[in-house]
Design a protein that fits this description.
The chain has about 200 residues and is mainly alpha-helical. About 60% of the residues lie in helices and about 10% in strands. The protein has six helices and three strands.
Length: about 200
């Protein structure tokens, strides 16, 4: 039986795949919507919906972010289905792609624009989240702002939960890697806002 960590890793992959496969479907590259991927996601959501007490702070934080992102994608694709049924004709893909690339290129110059893919919004070195309270707050605010720009829900994103997640993650990685400090960064990958840790020797 898979562990919670393994299930969350697979859930993150499936949410990303869900978005990719739906884009392929609307672009004509798939004949049917990604029902299998959606079924796998729903299965994990149901499995852990009533098992929050079994999760650590970090697992709950990660789980909530993933289901919020999944819900955002579902709503987006529901609207696209509705547009298709009503006879809405989208812009040519090439024009849309050029617009996306232009937005990414100017993301840092234009207020409110979505951050470009793979570019760190902020980097913060942290050895102890309890002592580095100011850095943790900066990281939290940047993470929250990036999610808002990406259209992700932040209703369940609280500072105390974020701190608990960082505390647990920092301690875990320091013990596993034998490092003194970590560098956390907020990035956008495949449309998902992620918090990524790097080892600092």
């Amino acid at each position: 039986m898979a562990t919670i960590e393994e299930d969350l890793i697979q859930l993150e992959k499936d949410v990303r795949q869900f978005k990719i496969e739906y884009e392929q479907y609307f672009g004509g590259g798939r004949k049917r919507p990604p029902a299998d991927t959606e079924w796998r996601i729903e299965l994990v959501i149901k499995r852990y919906g009533d098992r929050a007490a079994e999760m650590s702070y970090g697992d709950r934080f990660r789980y909530n972010n993933l289901i919020q992102t999944y819900a955002k994608y579902r709503e987006l694709f529901r609207k696209r289905f509705k547009q298709r049924e009503e006879g809405y004709v989208p812009r040519h893909f090439g024009a849309a792609a050029r617009t996306i690339e232009a937005n990414r290129a100017h993301a840092r110059e234009k207020p409110g624009a979505v951050e470009p893919e793979g570019v760190a919004v902020i980097r913060v070195e942290c050895s102890d989240p309890d002592r580095d309270a100011e850095k943790v707050e900066q990281l939290y605010q940047a993470f929250r702002k990036a999610k808002e720009k990406a259209g992700e829900s932040t209703d369940q994103l609280a500072l105390d939960t974020f701190k608990a997640f960082l505390r647990q993650k920092t301690q875990q990685l320091k013990e596993q890697q034998g490092c003194e400090s970590l560098e956390y960064e907020v990035v956008v990958e495949s449309g998902l806002v992620r918090l990524r840790a790097r080892i600092k020797k």
